[in-house]
Amino acid sequence: MRKGFTLIELSIVFLIIGFLVAALSVGNELVRTATMQSIISDLREFESYSKEFRTKYYYWPGDMPNASSFWSIDATTAGEHDGNGDHDVDDVIGSVPSTYEGEAFWQHLYKAGFFETVYSGIATATHTNSPLAPIDSSRYITNDADKVVDAKLHITLSTGNASAYESMTTQQAFFIDNKMDNGEATTGIILGGEDVGDCYTGIAYNVDDDSPDQCWITFIIEE
Question: Is residue 110 assigned to a domain?
């Protein structure tokens, strides 16, 4: 005759299930935290590269007007351009075919040896010639004609155009802002942004809402 489970056996089973669920939850949280730390590391690295570039060449990458004097950058070739040297990385570069200094930003850093990945400087609607970020198919987008904020150099983490397409939850945006800045969405060097999402109210991130794709963030390197 087959016996059923005793209460003790059932308790052990439920206890094991509880441990497994807790371990899975902790594991997922560790992965999310590691992803946010990776983004923070990327942003700080880009800042360091940019400042080192400017120290050596006097201009921000992308804005450098004599880049073709240092590297094989032909202004008549698609996406390979000199900047205009006004110390603001946002202008349209008019040589044919036209592009943005924000796209040339990554190309100049590549040409100067800061990246192994080739960035051509060619302007695309989804910024495919900028680095991928480790979240939701996002990219690190340098300011262009659709500047998110009025700053001479900023980098936005977004899924598409630098002025749209949220890429993270409010909790993720707050985590990065709180680690790198002051934790306020509308002040400081890390700014939260929204297009159709619900990223913040006033200066506070809406951290009670853990829905996906509520925020993008912008890192101001120079105002």
Answer: yes
Residue 168 backbone dihedrals phi, psi, to 5 degrees = -150, 170
pTM to 2 decimal places: 0.83
Tell me how many domains the chain contains: 1
Residues listed for the chain: 223
Closest CA to 74 of 18, 120, 109: 120
| In a domain? residue 118 | yes
The pLDDT tens digits along the chain (223 residues) read 455 567 776 677 777 776 666 656 555 666 688 999 999 999 999 999 999 999 999 999 999 999 888 887 554 555 557 888 999 988 777 665 567 888 889 999 999 999 999 888 877 777 888 999 998 778 998 875 555 677 889 998 887 654 557 889 999 999 999 999 999 999 999 999 888 789 999 999 999 988 988 998 999 999 8
Structure tokens, 106: 């990554």
In a domain, 9, yes or no: no
Q: Vertex 218, ends 215 and 221: CA angle to 5°?
A: 170
Distance CA 171, CA 216 (A): 11
The answer for residues whose C-beta is within 8 angstroms of residue 49's C-beta and 6 or more apart is 61, 109, 114
Is residue 65 a part of any domain in this protein?
A: yes
Dist. CA 178–CA 198, nearest whole Å: 18
Name the one residue in this structure whose structure tokens are 């998110």: 148
What span, in angstroms and rounded, lies between the C-alpha atoms of 158 and 136?
9
Question: Where in the sequence is the domain holding 67, given as residue range(s)?
Answer: 20-222
